[in-house]
Amino acid sequence: MTTSNIIILCAFAFYMVVMIAIGAFYSRSTKNNEDYFLGGRNLGAWTAALSAEASDMSGWLLMGLPGTFYLFGSGDIWVAIGLLIGTILNWFIVSGRLRRYTIAAGNSLTIPSFFENRFRDKGALKIVSAIIIAVFFAVYTASAFSSGAKLFATLFGTDANYSQVYVIGLIIAAAVILVYTFLGGFRAVCTTDLIQGLMMIIAILSVPIIAYAVLTFDTSFSQALASKGVSDAGSFINPFTYGDSAISAQTIISGLAWGLGYFGMPHILVRFMAIKSEKEIKKSRKVAIVWVSLAFVASFLIGIVGRAYLAAQLDETTSETVFIRMIQQLFANNGVLIFIGGIFLCGILAAIMSTADSQLLVTASAVSEDMYKGVIRKNASEKSSLIVGRIAVVVIAVIAFFIALDPKSSIMTLVSDAWAGFGAAFGPVVLLALFWKRSNSAGALAGMISGALSVIVWDYIPIISGQTIGASTGLYSLAIGFPVAFVVMLVVSLITKKPSDEIVKQFESVAEFKED
C-alpha cells in the first residue's frame, strides 16, 4: 500500500471513529421507541434541515448524478430542477401539517402508523406500507452501500483486484453504518447527518471550483473540453441537448417527475415529524432550500468541470467515480494535500452514510412499531420492540449488502428504482391524507398498491418486444405511477364509505391551525 493510501485511510478511520462515538453517546439517552425512532420530537432547525437533506442526498449526488453530467452534459439538469422544486414544495406544503397531524393522530411515530391513525384503519394500511418500506429501502440502501464500495475500490484497488477491494469496501461501509445506527437511533443519525451535511457541501463546492481555477490557468474551458472529445462546448452545457442530440420531451418530463418523489420519502418525512416546533420549521426550510440549491449546482459542476479537467477519459462504467478522481488528481503532491483530499473524500462517505443510516432506521421502525408491535404482538414491551427494531436494521442491511455485491451495479439506477417506488406508493396518499378530508382508508390502500404496482410493471416486466415499458418509452416510471395512484385514491375514496365524523373533525382541527 502506498503512502498516499495510508494517509487517506487515516482520514477515513478518524471520521468513522467519530461517527461511532456519536452513536455510543446517544445510546445512553435512548430509552423508548419515541427516542429511538423520532428523537423525542426535539430536533432543532439546523439539525432537522441538514439531516433531512443529507439523508436525501446519498452517494448519487456526488457520484451518480455527476457521472451522467460527465457523459452527456447538461441534459440531466432537469432531474436536479425537478428535485429542487420538489424539495421547496415539500418544506412549504407538507412539513408543518405533517408534524401537526402526526401528533394529533395518536402521536404517530412512523408514516405507516400515521396512515393507520389518520384513516382509523384496522391494520391493512400499516402492513402494506411496512412491506413497501422494507422492499424499496433494501434497494435504496444497496445504492448507498455500492457507493461506499466503489469509493474504496477506486481509491485502493487496481484493475486486477478491483472486485475484491469492492467487496472489502462494501463490508466496511455496511459495518460502520450498522454500528452507530444500531446504538444511537434517531438522535445519533440526525447528529451525524448534521456533521455530514456540512462536510458534503464544503467538499462538493470546493473541489470543482479549485479544479476549474487550475484548469483555466493556462487554457480556456472550451479548449479543455475539446481536448477531451467535446467538440461543441455550447451544446455540452446546453440543458436542451442530451449528448449529441436534442433533448426529448420524455427526458424533460422524466427529470421533472423526480420532484414528485419527495412527498413519499419516509426517511425525509420523518424529519418533519421530529422537528421541535412549527417555528423551527420556518427556520429549517430556509436552511434546507439553500443547502439543496448549492448541492445541485455543485453536482452539476463536478460532472461538467470533471470532463474537462481529468487526464483520463471515463466510460459508462467508471463515470460515477469522477468526483473521486478529481480529488485524487488535485490533492496528490504532498502529505498535507493528500490528507486534505482524504477529508474531502470523507464528504462522499458522509453522503453515503447519512442516507443509509436513515433508511435503515425507518425500515426498523416499520418492522418494529408497525408490524411487530402494531400487528403481531400488540402488547409488546418497549424493550422487546426496540430489540426487534435493531434486529430489523441488521436484516435489511444484510439484504442490501447482497443486492450491492455486483461491482458493475449502477448507483443511479438503484436510486431511481427506489425513488419511483416510494414516490408513487406514498406520495399521493400523504398529500390527500393531509389536504382532502373526503379521503378514506379504502382509497389510501388502493392508491398505495396501484402506485407500487405501476412502478414494478413499468420498470421490471418486459412486455414490449422483450423490453420493459420504461426502457421502450424512455419515460420515468414515477411520471406514470404517481398520477395513477393519485387518481385511483380519489376514485376509490369517492365510491366507498365517507370518513366518520370523528375523522373529519380531527382533519378540520389540524387544517384550521395557523402558523405564527
Radius of gyration (CA) equals 23 Å
CATH fold-level label: Sodium/glucose cotransporter
**Overall SS class:** mainly alpha
Overall body shape:
globular
Q: Which stretches of 5+ consecutive residues score pLDDT under 50?
A: none
| Count of spatially separate domains | 1
H-E order: HHHHHHHHHHEEHHHHHHHHEEHHH
State the helix count.
21
Q: Give the helix proportion (percent range).
A: over 70%
- Largest beta sheet: what is the strand line-up? 1-2
Beta-strand residue fraction? under 5%
Q: In angstroms, what separates the terminal alpha carbons? A: 59 Å
CATH class: Mainly Alpha
CATH superfamily (homologous) name: Sodium/glucose cotransporter
**Arithmetic mean pLDDT:** 84
Number of strands: 4
Biggest pleated-sheet summary: 2 strands, antiparallel
Fold and architecture overview:
The chain is mainly α and 516 residues long. It has one domain (3-511): Sodium/glucose cotransporter (Up-down Bundle), CATH 1.20.1730.10. Helices cover 77% and strands 2% of the residues. The protein has helices at residues 3-27, 33-38, 45-56, 59-72, 77-104, 111-119, 124-156, 162-215, 221-227, 233-236, 249-257, 266-274, 278-309, 322-330, 335-376, 382-403, 411-435, 441-460, 469-473, 477-495, 501-511, and strands at residues 241-242, 245-246, 462-464, 467-468. The strands form two sheets. Strands 1-2 form a two-stranded antiparallel sheet. A two-stranded antiparallel ribbon has the order 3-4. β1 (241-242) and β2 (245-246) form a beta hairpin.
